[in-house]
Amino acid sequence: MQNLRVDLHIHTAASDGTWTPLELVKQVKSVGIEVFAISDHDAIDNVEETEALAKKEGLHFVPSVEISSSYQGQLFHILGYRSDIKNAALLKFLKENQNRFDEANQHALNFLVEQGHSVDFDAFKKYSYDKRRGGWRLLNFVIDSGICSNIDEFFSKLFAGHHDRLFPKFPDPEEAIKVIQKAGGIPIFAHPGMSFKNLSPAEQKAAIERLLESGVKGMECYSTYHKPDAIKCYLAICKEKNLLITGGSDCHGSLIPARKLGHPEVYIKDLNLGAVFT
Known about the structure:
With about 280 residues, this protein is α/β, with parallel strands linked by helices. The chain folds into two domains: about 5-95 and about 170-275, TIM Barrel; about 100-165, no CATH class. The protein has ten helices and nine strands. It has helices spanning about 20-30, 45-55, 90-115, 120-125, 135-145, 150-160, 175-180, 190-195, 200-215, 230-240; strands at about 5-10, 35-40, 60, 65-70, 75-80, 185-190, 220-225, 245-250, 265. The strands form two sheets. Strands 4-5-6-7-8 form a five-stranded mixed sheet. A four-stranded mixed sheet has the order 3-2-1-9. Strand 2 (about 35-40), helix 2 and strand 3 form a beta-alpha-beta unit. The protein is globular and about 55 Å long. It starts with a strand and ends in an 11-residue tail after the last strand. The model has no long low-confidence stretch (mean pLDDT about 95).
C-alpha cells in the first residue's frame, strides 16, 4: 500500500485540460499511477464519469475540485478533496466563479483592442471550440483569430505584465474553504509556490496562518511549481502544524507539455493524506 504511486492534481477537458475521462484513465494506468484525482478549475463535470472508469480499472479515485480565490492580489487555489459534487452551495459557488471568468474575458478583449489588435466582439459571443483542445474560451478564440499562436505567446506577448487583465477578483480563500467544508470536503492549499511568488517571506507566513485559521487542512507540497528546497520548506511547515501533505503534477494533458503526468513522482509513503485517501 505504501508504494502506491499518486497524482492528486490533474485537469481534464471539463476545465482547461485536453483529456476526456476515458483518455485520462488510460494515461494514468499507462504510467503506473494507482491513486489519482481530477481537480478541474471551478468545475466538476467529469468527476462521476472518471470515478466509474477508475473503478472498472481497479484504480483509487479521489473526487476533487480546484476552487479559485484571491488573496492580496494573488491567485490562491484551494483543492476540495472528497467534496460532494452535488452540494447546492458548492455548485452555486463554482457557477459564480465561472461567471467571473466570463466577465474577465470581456475586459481582456478590451485590453487587446487598446493594444491595437483587431477583435470581433460579435464573433466572440458566438464562439465555441472543441474542449479537447485544452485551454479556455478566450485563449482558443485569440488563437483562432490569429492574434497569437499558442498559450506561451498568449501570456508572454499579449499579456506580459498584465496578467491582472485575465483573472478577476475571486472571493477570499476563507469563502472557498467554507464552501468546501459545507460540501463535506477536505480543503488543501494547492501549489503554494505559485501563489507565493510575489509575496515576501513575512507575507507568506501570514497567508499560511490565515489559511489555517480559515480551516485549511493541508498543503500540496509536491508540485511541478516547487524546487527541492521549496518542497522541503513546505514539508517542514506541514509537519510542524500537523497538516496533511499532498502532491500532484497539475498536468493539463498536451496543453502544457512541461507538466507531465505523475511528476513529481510521489508515493503514498511520501504523503500524509488522512481522510483524502480512504
